[in-house]
Design brief:
The chain has 152 residues and is mainly α. It contains five helices and no strands. The protein has a domain of 86 residues.
């Protein structure tokens, strides 16, 4: 085998392997490229209690993350509030930026908490979705007032 043959075999093998690996990379990039678009589709198309539960869990995780970031921002805010320069400091001062960041994280945590609660309520089956036996079982548990009889 000559050097030219060896180089030809290497080039040929590289060209045969490249399209397969490029195709795999393209598919994984396509799925990971826009996770927000997939999430928006899940929010828009959610109809089952399982999907609503998944959305509630997602927003619970978001709320915990925002609360953790708010705690970190509050520490920075407290540190920066001790180092105030004076009244003539240029706006926004570092203490103001830290305060606004803290307030942003608290607001986002509250929004995520309300969305989590909304989707958890949607995940619980309503009376209309319960089987008929369960509805009748609920209505049978109501006690009748003493002395009253229903006649037909």
């Amino acid at each position: 085998m000559t050097v030219k043959d060896f180089i030809a075999v290497c080039v040929l093998s590289a060209t045969l392997v490249s399209p397969g690996s490029a195709q795999v990379a393209a598919n994984s990039a396509k799925n990971d490229e826009h996770p927000a678009r997939n999430f928006d589709r899940l929010v828009r198309d959610a109809h089952t209690p399982k999907q609503y539960q998944a959305l509630g869990n997602y927003y619970d995780r978001q709320q915990k993350q925002f609360m953790q970031q708010a705690a970190e921002a509050k520490v920075k805010w407290e540190q920066r509030s001790q180092n105030t320069v004076g009244v003539l400091a240029k706006y926004p001062r570092p203490v103001d930026s830290a305060k606004y960041l803290y307030e942003y994280y608290v607001r986002k945590a509250a929004e995520a908490g309300s969305l989590a609660q909304k989707y958890r309520q949607l995940a619980e089956p309503s009376d209309a979705e319960l089987p008929q036996k369960q509805i009748y079982a609920k209505s049978d548990s109501v006690e009748q007032p003493a002395g009253e009889r229903f006649t037909l």
